[in-house]
């Protein structure tokens, strides 16, 4: 019985890791759709978002079943609770990739991004995808040092996000208000995606150590 129970805990963590893989792929495609004005790819991200929602529902259903039937304690209880909270963060990551794809679709056939900021968004997309994939590996390995290392990439994302503001606030900005609004929103989507990935990694640190490192309660999209 105990072996089957621990197998269930392992399957729960693997479901969460799979979710991270799903949202990393979604953000990779959404970024490509944004940069390449690729409507078909944007539509794929939009239509696939329901799969992330379904995955979260399955994770939560299995987690609550374990709580009800096994009454876990100590590390096992931390694992179940961490997965429930992390699944919410990962679903929000999927929503943020969805927002990027919708922006690409909304402006099609015109590009959303002026050439001036395309390199910034290419970098933000790369970092976002890497963070989601690193979070997936942290869940699978429970590597506390790797979990803590995600914050360095998140700092790089924050620097790029701040740089975007300096670009669009420049008095020489030639692309108008609508473009500035698009860039502001898109920058926020990428910045929040990264924050959620770091939050997921911190949940793993909580499972292993029993302590939540520097966790922020601001989880809004």
From TrEMBL:
<dbReference type="GO" id="GO:0045936">
    <property type="term" value="P:negative regulation of phosphate metabolic process"/>
</dbReference>
<feature type="domain" description="PhoU">
    <location>
        <begin position="122"/>
        <end position="204"/>
    </location>
</feature>
<keyword id="KW-0963">Cytoplasm</keyword>
<dbReference type="GO" id="GO:0030643">
    <property type="term" value="P:intracellular phosphate ion homeostasis"/>
</dbReference>
<dbReference type="InterPro" id="IPR038078">
    <property type="entry name" value="PhoU-like_sf"/>
</dbReference>
<dbReference type="Pfam" id="PF01895">
    <property type="entry name" value="PhoU"/>
</dbReference>
<comment type="similarity">
    <text>Belongs to the PhoU family.</text>
</comment>
<dbReference type="GO" id="GO:0006817">
    <property type="term" value="P:phosphate ion transport"/>
</dbReference>
<protein>
    <recommendedName>
        <fullName>Phosphate-specific transport system accessory protein PhoU</fullName>
    </recommendedName>
</protein>
<keyword id="KW-0813">Transport</keyword>
<dbReference type="InterPro" id="IPR026022">
    <property type="entry name" value="PhoU_dom"/>
</dbReference>
<comment type="subunit">
    <text>Homodimer.</text>
</comment>
<keyword id="KW-0592">Phosphate transport</keyword>
<feature type="domain" description="PhoU">
    <location>
        <begin position="17"/>
        <end position="103"/>
    </location>
</feature>
<dbReference type="GO" id="GO:0005737">
    <property type="term" value="C:cytoplasm"/>
</dbReference>
<dbReference type="InterPro" id="IPR028366">
    <property type="entry name" value="PhoU"/>
</dbReference>
<comment type="function">
    <text>Plays a role in the regulation of phosphate uptake.</text>
</comment>
């Amino acid at each position: 019985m105990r072996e089957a129970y621990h197998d269930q805990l392992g399957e729960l963590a693997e479901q969460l890791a799979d979710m991270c893989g799903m949202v990393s792929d979604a953000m990779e495609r959404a970024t490509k759709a944004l940069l390449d004005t690729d409507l078909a790819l944007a539509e794929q991200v939009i239509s696939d978002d329901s799969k992330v929602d379904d995955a979260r529902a399955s994770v939560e259903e299995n987690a609550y079943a374990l709580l009800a039937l096994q009454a876990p304690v100590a590390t096992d209880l931390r694992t179940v609770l961490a997965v429930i909270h992390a699944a919410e963060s990962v679903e929000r990551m999927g929503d943020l990739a969805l927002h990027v794809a919708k922006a690409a679709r909304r402006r099609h056939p015109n590009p959303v991004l002026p050439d001036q900021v395309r390199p910034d968004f290419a970098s933000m997309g790369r970092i976002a995808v890497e963070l989601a994939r690193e979070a997936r590996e942290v869940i699978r390995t429970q590597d506390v040092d790797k979990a803590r290392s995600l914050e360095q990439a998140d700092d790089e994302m924050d620097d790029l996000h701040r740089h975007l503001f300096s670009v669009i606030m420049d008095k020489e900005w030639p692309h108008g208000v609508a473009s500035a609004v698009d860039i502001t929103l898109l920058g926020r989507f990428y910045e929040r995606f990264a924050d959620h990935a770091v939050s997921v990694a911190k949940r793993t640190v909580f499972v292993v150590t029993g302590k939540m490192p520097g966790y922020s309660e601001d989880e809004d999209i």
